[in-house]
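Mods, move this if it's the wrong board.
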Amino acid sequence: MESRNQTTVLEFLLLGFTERVELRGFLFVTFLVMYTMNLLGNGTMISIIAGNSHLHTPMYFFLCNLSLVDMCFSSVTVPKLLSNLISNSRTISFSNCFVQLYFFMFSGGSECVIMSIMAYDRYVAICNPLHYVTIMNKKVCLSMSIASWIIGLFHSLLHTLLVYRLSFCKSNEIQHYFCDLAQMLQLSSTDIFINEIAIFVEGSLIVMLPFVIILISYIRIITTILKIKSTGGRWKTFSTCSSHLTVVTLFYGTLIFMYFRPSSNYSMARDRISSVVYNVLSPMLNPFIYSLRNRDVKIALKRVLQRKGSSSSG
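Not the wrong board. Structure tokens:
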């Protein structure tokens, strides 16, 4: 097996969104606001669920996992993006680039698995309600949660190690705001056939298998809902999974748009915008989607605000 050549690249240049200096201030404020809302929204969601015993159910346990991975997902890329927008230097060291690549793929892979687990949880709750407590017991939920993080870990480790074995001698300019896997493969001066096979086989499995599970779960859920005779009953049942369906549509809709389109329609600018949607916008919106469309979360949030209001007035 060929050993890894000594690379001549000591750092990479993240070209980001634009070369126009006058836009950097606007972009900095925009991403700072979005990132702050992400941390506050998801942090509040975790606190509300942890502090209210009636929310200690499988659905909200997995929602805590989703909020945590959303915070990690954006934290991998946005702080460096903000730093580059306000400084003249847009470089990232060779080692830090691989650290960013690892945690980006780790968070993305875990998010895909967690979303499929949440879909399965709703499927069991709606289609098999009498056995829900038995099937989704604490041990099963904890095992599923740990598995989602472990799968993300090994998914990321595989691709990061495969990229690390490559040499980078042609260029150090990454046409993105973070160390994107596809961009790094383009910069490689060695053969990337093994990487492409790994992306096609394992990468597709990590992204598409959870999507298939989500699709099958919601087909079964919709079939069950349509059998309910009363309109009120249908809506009440559907409302328990509508928030998750909205989140999945936003996240997977962007991924499918990015990776399942003709190569003739490829645009780097469009690619960057799509990355912002699933890496920054979607994690920011998720807690608001769940709080606005979920009666239990709204009640718990109202109680927290009332307690804070009474304690401050007292």
